[in-house]
Amino acid sequence: MVFIRRYGTLIGFVAILVFFSVMLPATFPTARNWLNITQQTSMLMVVAAGMTVVMVMGDFDLSVGSAASLAGIVAALMMAAGQPIWAAVSIALAVGLLGGAFNGAMVSLVGILPFIATLATMTMFSGLAFVVSGGKTISGRAIPEDFGNFARGGIPLGDWGGVAVSLPNLSIIAILVILVVWILLEQTTFGRRLYAMGGNMEAAHLSGIAVKRLRLIAFSLTGLAAAAGGLMYASRVASANPVQGSGLMLNAIAAVFLGTTMSRHGEPRILATVVGVIVLGVLDNGLTQLSVDSYIRQVLVGALILVAVGAGSLGQKRR
Amino acid sequence: MASPVPLLSATSVTKAYAGIPALSGASLVVAPGEIHALMGENGAGKSTLIKILAGVVAPDTAHIAIDGAPVTIESTKAAYRLGLRFIHQEFNVVPTLSVAENIFMGRRYPRRASILVDWVELNRQAQRALDRLGIDHIDPRQNLGELGLGDQMLVRISAALLDDAKLYVMDEPTAALTADESQRLFRVLREIRASGSSVLYVSHRLDEVMALCDKATVLRDGRSIDSGALANITHDDLVALMIGRKVEEAYPKAVAEPRDTTVFAATNLATLGLKPTSFSLRAGEVLGIAGLSGSGQGELIRAIFGDFRVTSGTMSLDNAPYAPASPAAAWQSGVAYVPRERRAEGLVMRRPIYQNITLAHLKRQSRAGTWLTPGREKRFAADLGANMRLKAVGPAQDVIELSGGNQQKVVFAKAVAGDPRLLLLEEPTRGVDVGAKFDIYSIIRERTAKGAGVILVSSDLPELIGICDRIAIMRDGTITTIVDAAGLGEDDLVNLCYGRTTGMVA
Which residues form the domain of B355? Predict the structure, then answer.
């Protein structure tokens, strides 16, 4: 039972891989498809990595999707106004960081429950994105070519069965973000303190941990990651509209929850989140290739989360 | 007056968790009309045995009979129907409901027109239950969360006494009670005995058990070691039975007198719930804090620890001004704290031992204050643990898997890991068995020998007298007097707590 609880998600993941490989032998188990999946999931990967940081403390952030949209809009508007790409990207990231810090302040300094505070900022960021963009999609010549080309570029990995493959730039960013979050959570005192706060906020406070400050920092980092995810998305589609990040929030939370089913005490861990994101990405990729209707896909993904997390909590029950 | 038919007989009780035996053929026989003590160290199997009787845990094997009739207790409902009532150490209450609602939890509320709750009747019956314990300061309509821990326990006890039962099982009922509240409880327990019902009483406070109980069953390593009348056994023999070896003293001797230098002083220190309070503490001294619950003990400690905002007054540590803005600042200055509730305030239960110990010292227990060094942390924790006789698989074991006494040792390890100048302790041995208690007192002695000052808040009067140099009495939010602990009797201390004068003011 304990085995099922810890490794059930991984076993299910392998089963999914085998299933798609059998159904789609020509297109699914190929290097090209896998690199494709890493690119498709890279935005979610970055946002989910940021989500992991706050969920380690037992909090979560509902505003990441609108923060991502807002960051994309801000960058696109600046570029449309003739600002250089680096300035547009920096300002957009700063907007995400500040938005996250605002969430953190509401939660830690004012003391509003994260669910309510980030629900409120979710609608605020979303509204702001509409206001500054006038509700329009910013695309075409307003976006510099270099910005869109970034997402299409990558590092060539050579030939694979006669087909040239490359590691997409977006995947490289995702890998770097995962690495940074891994170091932060697993190798530094900052991460240790966040996990202690997630385990027992009061004991952490009485052990001299600056609980309020760390919470504020953690939310800021989540906001920063959300903005990065939004920029990656804007680059990939070479345009920005005020709702393009809205699907990220639920998927990011789902990925972290899938990951928690693999850890010892059900706590979020970054590498487990990575597996969670890949599970969602592979499902999406495989089902699309099988031409399964996208609404059916939603039903299947939701059911998968219930099964994985449900099996985990049933395994923990003693009676 | 041996009764032929015991009220409760449980024999050959075995239970193993994941192959590790918790009970291996334990037996317990309680006669009608007696107060029976269940004794043993933490981990001896007391809790498991009680949980089996309560229908919470299913035994592997057991022969249980009530009034001579064999029974199986497959659920808590079954235990209730059989006339068994339980008052647990970790009482389950709903703080947002009223006292009366908590008392009636799990029972049918009195009704009006068969569907509406009769609140007047509910409150009246709850009041009657409280009256039985002589409690007049708790309003049944109050929210339970507004009450202190001691009062909450009194409410739980009242609830168990609501209807007549055969056997009342009480696990550490006095842990959160003041001496006076305990006395009232004992009076009720004696009434229960007189009415022919019985009490199974679990406590680590031996004096209490010796004074109150008729018989005792001692468990050790899941077996019943001995059972008999308490009149025929001495305090020391009972301890020896429980831990399987002789102990010479309950409290380790002080190795040195307190020094003449002052380590800590408070001048007119005040915070919300603490009126201006002044005292000083010498290096190597243990200052006890006694008083009725809610007299300002917690506020005093939290003010010194930088957790409650100081509204007036000053403090000094090693003769330098000391004004911590947060617990973090207190730790930084060399002040360490062992909180009252180890599970809720002291430990991160699902984290390893070593991470709990170094949590307050990560700046030093890391490279450049940033990079974790788990190998070094584990060695540090293992050394500290060995010094305290911490029983664990290793420093990486999760705290949740340890017994209460060993969990408390982890809290102490965290507190002393930074060689504190001032050690603040609240109820440091609550729910801790005799063997571990001695180890904890030894830790305190070790710190005072190194010149640290210790402030110890406790409701365990023998402990205060046994381990402290002086005892400060708190009443109505301030220290009213400070007395020498040497030669002090428990009754003197009780009188002082109630503000009756004795001639022993130092």
Answer: 344-419
